[in-house]
Design brief:
This protein is of the alpha/beta class. It has 13 helices and nine strands. Strands 1, 2, 3, 4, 5, 6, 7, 8 and 9 form a nine-stranded parallel β-sheet that branches. Strand 1, helix 3 and strand 2 form a beta-alpha-beta unit. About 45% of the residues are buried. It binds 5'-deoxyadenosine (5AD). 5'-deoxyadenosine binds next to loops. 5'-deoxyadenosine (5AD) binds next to loops.
């Protein structure tokens, strides 16, 4: 099994030689093929609410952003989108929202139970830092997985980008550990190139993925949103030699290194990557360590409102304007995977072990 040290991670993050980088992509792609194989699992992403009570300094959904029109999908809308995921042949539906307490624990538990009893889909939740009782309730209702990126583990940077809620001071890394204990397949991840993020700090994050033994790891470049403090450049950058750039290339390095430290993890080529390179981002991510794609299932009237950053691209899911499946976009996705020698995974695409 490939093992890679903290020092190696630091060195790779600063590597700029194209030939050496080509050998990194090659190693990551080999590890990917030998562990999780050629099947790309599709997870339908459904953004069920853009309300958020938190004040994260990077995110367009932050409570302080008064410009954003807010929405919350109702049960009927959620269920019809879930059936779109099923008809498109996906194995998983991901329900994501801001940290929205208008989404009550019991209400979402009922929806999870419905999805689990009416479909064969795996259910992934990405609902922010909810209290333990909600996390347990949803797990008991049948939710399989939970995603919560810790964004950065840097003790100086973390509070600057992620102010705590008034009554809660738990670090997301601790919540990630708690999610594993509750019994979720657990995903986390980071943003790349946050102002103030240095190379050693990023290397420690990647190293932490391994220590946490994560099942899923999502990483993407930080993309400035003008209606946020970070997007208005209120956070100090490090001197150029220290500051991690929020580039496409740096994202590929992190994906490749993540595959080497966590060979069996499910690693998506993320929407943020598709945003910085609309035509090649997903494909290239999949060739440099990633094995998951998350097509967007959100009904089109809500899509532009889930604006965590501007010009958010999406991997076109099957729901057209009317919520009806567009077979052409699905065929197009299959074709793109086929072009790079990959197949579409069947089943739920659970984390593989051993
Ligand atoms: N740029 C890039 N990624 C962002 N996210 C939130 N805001 C931004 C941004 N401005 C990411 C965070 C979050 C995920 C859902 O989206 O990592 O966990």
């Amino acid at each position: 099994m490939t093992r890679i040290s903290y020092d190696d991670i630091c060195a790779w993050l600063r590597e700029d030689d194209p030939d050496r980088l080509a050998s990194l992509w090659e190693r990551a792609d080999t590890v990917r093929r030998e562990t999780v194989g050629d099947a790309v699992h599709l997870r339908g992403l459904l953004e069920i609410s853009n309300h958020c009570c938190r004040m994260c300094t990077y995110c367009g959904l932050r409570a302080g952003n008064r410009k954003l029109r807010r929405y919350r999908m109702d049960e009927g809308e959620i269920m019809s989108s879930v059936f779109n995921a099923l008809m498109a042949g996906y194995g998983t539906v991901v329900l994501q929202a801001g940290e929205d307490y208008g989404i009550e624990g019991l209400w979402l538990a009922d929806i999870v139970r419905r999805i689990k009893s009416e479909t064969p889909l795996a259910v992934t939740l990405s609902m922010g830092e909810r209290p333990q009782k909600d996390l347990v309730l949803w797990r008991d209702a049948g939710a399989d997985r939970y995603l919560l990126r810790f964004e950065t583990s840097d003790p100086v940077l973390y509070p600057l980008i992620h102010p705590s809620a008034p009554d809660r001071h738990q670090h997301r890394v601790d919540i990630v550990r708690q999610l594993k204990q509750i019994g979720y397949e657990t995903g986390s991840g980071i943003m790349i190139g946050i102002p103030g993020q240095g190379y050693e700090s990023l290397a420690r994050d990647i190293h932490l993925f391994e220590a946490l033994d994560l099942d899923m790891i999502g990483v993407g470049p930080y993309i400035p949103h003008p209606d946020t403090p970070m997007g208005r450049n209120e956070l100090k950058k490090l001197p150029a030699a220290e500051q991690v750039p929020n580039t496409e290339l740096m994202t590929y390095k992190v994906i490749a290194l993540t595959r080497m430290v966590c060979p069996e993890a499910n690693i998506p080529a993320t929407t943020a990557l598709a945003t910085v390179n609309r035509t090649e981002g997903i494909k290239t991510g999949l060739r440099r360590g990633a094995n998951i794609v998350m097509p967007n299932l959100t009904p089109v009237q809500y899509r532009s409102l889930y604006e965590i950053y501007p010009e958010k691209g999406c991997i076109e899911g099957p729901s057209g304007a009317s919520g009806v499946i567009d077979p052409r976009s699905l065929y197009n996705l299959y074709q793109r995977l086929h072009d790079i020698g990959r197949t579409v995974g069947d089943g739920q695409g659970n984390r593989r072990r051993g």
